[in-house]
Amino acid sequence: GVILLPITILGMFLGGFLIKKFKLHITEMAKFACITFIATYLLYLLYFTCSCEVLQVAGLTAPYSGIKHPSFAKNTYLASCNADCSCKLDQWDPVCGDNGITYMTACFAGCKSSTGTGKNMVFHNCSCVEGQGHGLGNSSAVLGQCQRESCTKAFPYFLALQTACAFILALGGTPTYMIMFRSVSPDLKSFAVGIETLGGRILGGLPAPIYFGALIDETCLIWGTKSCGGSGSCRVYDTKEFRNVYLGLIAGLRAGSCLLYIVLSVLIMKRFK
Fold it and tell me: Are strands 231-237 and 220-225 parallel, antiparallel or unpaired?
């Protein structure tokens, strides 16, 4: 928000300045708005190259042995290293082991003791971590999920791409509004703004959170449990599936918008030739 808001404001003001500076006709504004939207769409497709690995959680997305195998059975939370620990499956207080694998709780990591308090707590003698090349009694785990380097490296690239998309899209925002004002009779301008806002809310603002939320929920790997029973928030997402579903849906919707922009531009050029 700190980065995108100023960029969007700058793009809108610059779009208005270009209209005034070059005294663009309505047909020229239509071309300008259409080109900026299509350019944003093409840039948006680069989002698919931003990759972030799935969080490696023992028993959920990674085997307790730490060795990836095609026949790995997911959702196998109990292993020989924690079979005698009586771990509760509905708890989620992740710890990061020395091996770089996240465990649902210190119990699932097979940890026997701990030192420190709060965020600085360190768990020791973790039997599930020991089984991966660590010496007996030398394995440990700290509170929190393990960091994913691919996500950290991809974020600046993602932010730069998002900034470019926001700026170009905002650049064509002002011409789009001006097209609406100039293509209707003066007595219908306020009515046109109302219809445009209503259409945006009915087609986008209201239903989008519902179907976006439903698709995002489908990519959840493990759900939390409320203290009073029932499903809580999602603990771990399949980030690759999340990316494909989320970006794919937006790409499909924007492809339809690109076609409508092209049709609008053709109709305006025919009418105001």
Answer: antiparallel
